[in-house]
Amino acid sequence: AQTVTQSQPEMSVQEAETVTLSCTYDTSESNYYLFWYKQPPSRQMILVIRQEAYKQQNATENRFSVNFQKAAKSFSLKISDSQLGDTAMYFCAFGTQGGSEKLVFGKGTKLTVNP
Amino acid sequence: NAGVTQTPKFRILKIGQSMTLQCTQDMNHNYMYWYRQDPGMGLKLIYYSVGAGITDKGEVPNGYNVSRSTTEDFPLRLELAAPSQTSVYFCASSYSQTGSDEQYFGPGTRLTVT
Do A98 and B97 count as a contact with CB atoms less than 8 A apart? Predict the structure, then answer.
């Protein structure tokens, strides 16, 4: 069974600085997808970034980028130039390609951006 | 597009009561999902559907039922509510399979069973 571990329950960062959120996962699958979802106080889950396991290049979306280390089963999220609106819970999630329709979520990291 | 909508936003149930959580999407997505989120935890899949008339159990289906008579709607039924079902419930949809396609989430329903 797949598992996703986020070892940092809470983090804080000053506005405009950079922060990295950690995520590790365990799987025997070779083809899979990894996601970071953001859940602001409004509770709406929003996709931040996605990584296909077969791609070696790390995904980037504006100020958000990942460090995907497939051999180490690590998938960290880097937020550059942090903004107050980045304050939220961040969930790492794992999905397999085809077959199972289940997304496996980590427990989340609560990020606070301080002014 | 409204995306994924859920009603109600909040609900308090007494033990043993039943209710239906409504979910509608207007993106013509084939796949729909129900998750629950307990305090301090990630989301866990309750049920999912790959199209109208087709549903299947997720990780934590006990105490719940679903139906999918149309592409747009995917209601979740709670029978004989128990305190263990106190949670926030999210409905989501995607165009294709979970692994390859983004899931779009509704705003959630906060349910308390007392």
Answer: yes
Chain B CB contacts of A30 under 8 Å are none
> Which of B42, B92, B100 shows the shortest C-beta gap to A106?
B42
**pLDDT tens-place string over residues B12-58:** 999 999 999 999 999 999 999 999 999 888 899 999 999 999 999 99
Whether A50 contacts B102, CB under 8 Å: yes
Cβ contact A21:A12 at 8 Å? no
Which residues numbered 23-82 in A keep a CB inside 8 Å of some CB on B?
Answer: 31-33, 35, 42-47, 50
Sign of torsion over alpha carbons B68, B7, B38, A82: positive
> What 3-state DSSP class applies to A54?
coil
Closest CA to B39 of A3, A108, A111, A10: A108
C-alpha span between B87 and A111 (Å, rounded): 22
**Higher model confidence: residue A22 or residue B50?**
A22
Angstrom distance (rounded) from CA B88 to CA A59? 30
Pairing between β-strand B109-113 and β-strand B10-13 as defined by DSSP bridges: parallel
